[in-house]
Write a structure and sequence with these properties.
Order of helices and strands: EHHEEEEEEH
Shape: elongated
Strand content: 35-45%
Number of helices: 3
Strand order of the largest sheet: 1-3-4-5-2
Largest sheet: 5 strands, antiparallel
Distance between the termini: 23 Å
């Protein structure tokens, strides 16, 4: 599987009064890392809109395990990967390392969506395109 890595400096505004990262901030970071995974795979949002019937991949479940605190001034590394890709949904795992140690492990389930055929204001789950699956798995692009 493809692994996208992103380094992040913990800023003052990320922290609570005890200078520990306020836990909802992690979910904000992880959401951005999911987008970064797609960009790392060569599929930014503009590419997805131009080349697929994509309208989004809404989050339907998330959870995290907090193992070690991160504090103001720390530099952390977040590794993001798609761990299970099904017909129209996929799981993402985020691992945040601080000082080389696993500090937070988070999981998301997202659904690949397109416009509902009966109501353009609604979304409908759609099969994930084979090219998208291959790229998220880190498989080489087929020759054109």
């Amino acid at each position: 599987m493809l692994v996208a890595r992103r380094e992040r400096y913990v800023e003052w505004g990320d922290c609570d009064p005890a200078r520990i990262v306020y836990n909802p901030r992690f979910f904000d970071w992880f959401d951005g890392c999911t987008a970064w995974l797609f960009e790392t795979a060569g599929m930014n949002k503009a590419w997805l809109y131009a080349n697929t019937s994509f309208t989004g991949f809404p989050l339907v479940e998330s959870r995290a395990r907090f193992l070690k605190p991160s504090r103001f001034g720390d530099t952390v590394m977040i590794e993001t990967t798609a761990t299970d890709i099904r017909r129209s949904s996929f799981d993402i795992r985020h691992q945040l390392f601080n000082g080389g140690e696993l500090s937070v492990e988070a999981f998301e389930t997202r659904v690949w969506t397109g416009k509902h055929p009966d109501d353009a204001n609604r979304l409908k789950s759609m099969p994930i395109p084979d090219d998208v699956i291959a790229r998220l798995k880190g498989e080489p692009k087929p020759a054109q």
